Amino acid sequence: MQDQAVIIREMVEADLPGNHQLQHLQMQYHLDWLGPIDYEWIASEACTQRTRNFIENDDHLAIVAEQGENPVGFLLGKIAPNHPTSMNKMIGELCSLFVHEDVRGLGVGRQLCERFNSFCADHGIGLIIVEAASSNFPTHEFYQRLGYKDYSVTMRLQLADDD
Question: What pTM was computed for the model?
């Protein structure tokens, strides 16, 4: 899969089925960090509508990385108001990023993030945040290589099952 160039472009409605496949792979990859996965949700209309919102809204960005006609990565990000870490200023929130393992290490994730950085800068945003599971060290290292700094720790207490 590594012979063809990777193209980064804005996601369109026709990309949704391929994006669902990548989200499914993303969830499998993160199984160790996320726990049980609701695969039905990934194929649901709710998931489709969530991604569609990133495509349709001017303050959201949905981009896809393609190699040939195959989607090999995506990024979903948005401009978010009043996040606690931003002192009540607008920020960029990198909501979801995934790169297929066949093209990891080729700069695809960096290209996707650089495109989001430009999107944020074009909207006058000076701060971008991203969250990653605390035990997902490869992802922490990736973001640190891009210049992100550790800022906070989110802790959770599960009181009941999410039936």
Answer: 0.83
Strands (E), the chain: 6-10, 60-67, 70-80, 91-99, 128-130
CATH assignment of the domain containing 17: 3.40.630.30
Coil/strand/helix, residue 113: helix
User: What residue ranges in 12-137 does DSSP mark as E strands?
Assistant: 60-67, 70-80, 91-99, 128-130
Q: Which range among 7-21, 31-45, 57-71, 125-139 shows the weakest confidence by mean pLDDT?
A: 31-45
pLDDT tens across 125-134, in order?
999 999 888 8
**Which residue range is the domain that position 98 belongs to?**
6-145
pLDDT digits (tens, 9 = 90+) for 51-87: 888 889 999 999 999 998 888 999 999 999 866 666 7
Beta bridge partners of 91: 80
Using DSSP bridges, classify how beta strands 70-80 and 60-67 pair: parallel, antiparallel or unpaired: antiparallel
Q: Is residue 14 part of a domain?
A: yes
For the purposes of burial, counting CB atoms within 10 Å of the CB of 71, is it exposed (0-12), middle (13-18) or buried (19 or more)? buried
